[in-house]
Amino acid sequence: MRDIALLVMLLALGWASFRRPWVGLLALVFVGVMHPQGYVSGFMQGFPAYFALLVVVALSAGWQLFRGRAWPPLFWDWRLAGLALLWGQFVLTTALGINPWAGWPRLMEVSKILPLILLVLLLIDTRVKLNWLLMTVGLSLAAVILKGGYWAFITGFHDRVYGPPGSQYAGNNEFAVATAMAIPLLALWYREADSKMLRWIVAILIALGFASALSSWSRGGLLSISVVALLLVWHSRRKWLAIPLLLMVVGLAVVGLSDEWVARMQTMAAPELEASAATRLELWRLGWDYALQHPWFGGGFGGWIYLTLPVGASRAWHSAYIEIVAEHGFPGLVLWGSLVFGSAVSLSVLIARNRRWQLPGLTDQAAMLRASLAAYLVGAAFLSIAYWELLYLLLACAILLSRFAKVARIERTG
Q1: Model's pTM, two decimal places?
Q2: Closest Cα partner for 87 from 264, 331, 288?
Q3: How big is the chain by its Cα radius of gyration, in Å?
Q4: Whether 362 contacts 414, CB under 8 Å
Q5: d(C-alpha 283, C-alpha 273), whole Å
Q6: CB within 8 A of 54, min separation 6: which ones?
Q7: How many CB atoms lie within 10 A of CB 337?
Q8: CA atoms of 359 and 337, how far apart (whole Å)
Q9: pLDDT (tens digit, 0 to 9) for every residue of the chain, 414 residues total?
């Protein structure tokens, strides 16, 4: 039954994609982020739903451009050069890597991000469409959050919550960070909503998001949602209400969560005393030492297979920062870090400047995007998530927001 429902949903999304390419892009993001294939077990389980929708959206966009005889307006942003240089570094490190048989397939897999980013930059041409894109990302994860939050409450937070099987955030740790990234986007939806009923629904989803992240038993996830909570309070229009509410939630969490959960979180203070945390420290040391010995190109994609042999050939560096520098050297780390941290700084500059510009909605969009990136930056310290599609999607949104703010400012000043 689930397979039939998924097939019908994909056919409807495919038709909408062909009619309006930018709506198809939203459908593509929804399928990519939610990963509905992970919830079926029949004939649709191996169906390339994402690729099929990508082809439809690309063909529809191409036909629209051909029919209109007009190319979309081109624009420049320093992050576009950063992305091109980063992928150039990926190609170099793969060609010179220590494990080319695994490196080239991994490069092709990571490069699947680029068509989505290109479509976002071409088809999202207004701030209204950008808002719909951000809300779509939040809604896509909300479907998973709803399931996870429900499970957290019925189990009394004693069982771990996981993401969609087969997705990039299937594990409990990855799910927690993805949830933390989604919460600010849901908060943006809450601020944009006109209906009180819709606001209540989104508020419940946000609460379930915090609950499901806590019930993931993820230490990195706890830090991510803590940062998000502080940023949401900071940007709240009613701090007199938000601060007591946050303190109340913290108090309830301390009282309601199990001793085992608290004990696991306390290992962050002494990671060398806990087996998995101690292994991570050793992995970080191995990756950092190799980067120091091979600073320009690192070991390339798939280098972990050989480099982590001293600790049992772990399949993850357990840190996006170590992952990047060990696989692509310090140039890769600088380029990748410039994109992520630079986008966070750029959003902060937009927030500061909009105090003078007073462009409607700009501060909310920039603040929530920044909070989502902050959740990623914290979670990335403990997870190998340097190539998350969700990250690059948010970077594209940050690029577009800077562009739209500049255009709006020029139009206002004449």
Answers
A1: 0.92
A2: 331
A3: 22
A4: no
A5: 15
A6: 28, 115, 116
A7: 17
A8: 29
A9: 677 887 888 888 888 888 889 999 999 998 888 877 767 777 777 778 888 899 999 998 888 877 776 677 778 899 999 999 999 999 999 999 998 888 999 999 999 999 999 999 999 989 899 999 999 998 888 878 887 777 777 777 777 788 777 788 888 889 899 999 999 999 999 888 888 888 888 888 888 888 888 888 888 888 999 899 989 888 877 665 566 666 665 555 555 666 676 677 777 765 555 566 677 888 899 999 999 999 999 999 988 888 887 776 666 788 999 999 999 999 999 999 999 999 999 999 999 999 998 888 899 999 999 999 999 999 999 999 999 999 999 999 999 999 999 988 887 775
Question: What tokens appear for 97 in the block?
Answer: 């890597």
